[in-house]
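WARN retry 2 of 3 for item q-0093 after timeout on previous attempt; input resubmitted unchanged.
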Amino acid sequence: MTSSIKESSLCSPDSTVSSLLTSYSTDSNNPYSNSLIHYKDKLYSSASEALEAYIEDFDLSLTSSEVRTGKICIFQSTPKQVKFSKHHAKEKHALDDFKQHVGLDSLASPSRTQKDQLEPLTSTADRGLEISTENLSNNLENHGSPSTTDILEAERSWENAPGAFKPPVPVCCEDMENALPFPKADIIHKFLEDCLNDKNKENTFSGGHHQRPLEALKLMLFKLQEIQASLNQNETAEQKEEIEKVYNYPGGEIQWARFRKNVNEYQSDEEMEFGKSINKHGSKMTFGTLRIKSKGLRAPHWHFNANEHGYLLQGTAWIGVIGADDSVVTTYNVTAGQVIFFPRNTVHWVKNVGSEDCLFLLFFTTHEELQTLDVDDAFFSTPEDIAARALKPQGGVNFIRTFKKQVEDQAINLPPNLNELVQNATYVQSPDKLVWQYFYDLKGSAKYPFPGGIFQWARYRINGTGLNETEKIFSESLNKHENTLTLATLRIFSNGLGQPHFHFNANEMGYVISGCGQAGVILSGVTANFNIGIGDVIFFPVGTQHYIKSLCDEDLLLILAYNTGNQLETLRMNDYFHGTADHILAQLFWKEQAEFKKFPTPAKKSGK
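OK item q-0093 returned
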């Protein structure tokens, strides 16, 4: 998902840059000297003449539709080891249409890296220009010539053409054979060399066959334009990488909507605001997506400071959980639409046993940074003699020393020679009384309809009301462990509404699985309404009134988490409105008491 940033070539017909710059250097050993410049079937030996011809055509094009500008091309005539061919600019890639409100898939923002690169570059160029101009002026004064300023003012007549701003000159760079790529660093280095020529080259500006001061300054300007375009060409790729900040591993990837202590780790302002919000409100929730490739393994690990709840959106996985009681190991298979649960400090793993990727939507019960330790990291961090004494392998410490830590993080593991390493794999299913402590069949559970949609719940119910025997095991497991979550799927039909309501005992966090809609939240003195779509994460602090409505032709589907292992306590707008005495409402809203009879008595809810 991250985009590799490819270094752009110097020559591009659609670039704002000019390969005219390659003819700028005054060094006789420069491979780009002795260029011929081609514009509209004519050859020019001077970049200035070619540019003047282009500008003349541009001026005419402002008053006549029959005149158009063309492309300026440079043909290299020396030497043979430097060869250019025509290059085509990369097409611009549209940014992924993620509507970001929380930080998982942040909107594109100007690249901080590009700004940092351009500012010192511009200031260095300015200083180089000042030095060159000053030296040129001194040289001209010594020869009794007009000042550089006078020459520039006299010859830059094109700047007064109609229209406040001219488009950059489209340029292509050609030779008869192969192209020579120029990394961005080399372009910048060459530019600085050209701008800051040493003294033995300065006197060549005004003599012989070399460029005049104006010619040199024009080409310096082209050079700056080229570097700018080179950076701009990478802008979309760099922004896309920021948008899709994903932690990649050999067997898959992880993406987060979470709090970070180091603000520099946030990828956007939106992500930072979300992280700070869930931390400030003590949400006790962090969200992440976990994608595991076929046969990939989320390495055995445990979390010091959080329980983990997950919903499998796609794929088939085999789960292992090692509990504290006599090292009981529970394993089970899980398919799309089912829920997994790992109490804090229980070792667990997730293995993709299907042919397609597994995609888990995960909630962790902390609003601080998640603290995790993988089994392989624990092993390699343990002194070899201690590991040997604890594990007692044949061969002792010498066998322990045969283990080699991989260079890449193995958090999601998938060795390329897996078939050679594993000859026999079985995926055992433990008894239900063990499995249902860590598993819930959400897609197969009871549906709770409401006007506009349907709820399905993975939650604790007092006395197991409405639950079957295996569901009661899960309900009691949630209630037994501290700081667990209630999970639910919420399906809102097309144009349906999840009416305004609030929760007495839980924050709420959700992830949009499909569809699109609008959400609104009212805090004390603050109201926010925003659109939501696939991949967005939303958060409603405890006690804040909020609503969700569907805006698309298809249903809006979300997975929701509430930070309570007890029964969720909710109050809806129609309930508290109808529960308030009509004479109180009449006084509050300055409206006739009888008017409030028009509000119907709400039906008894079986859902949220």
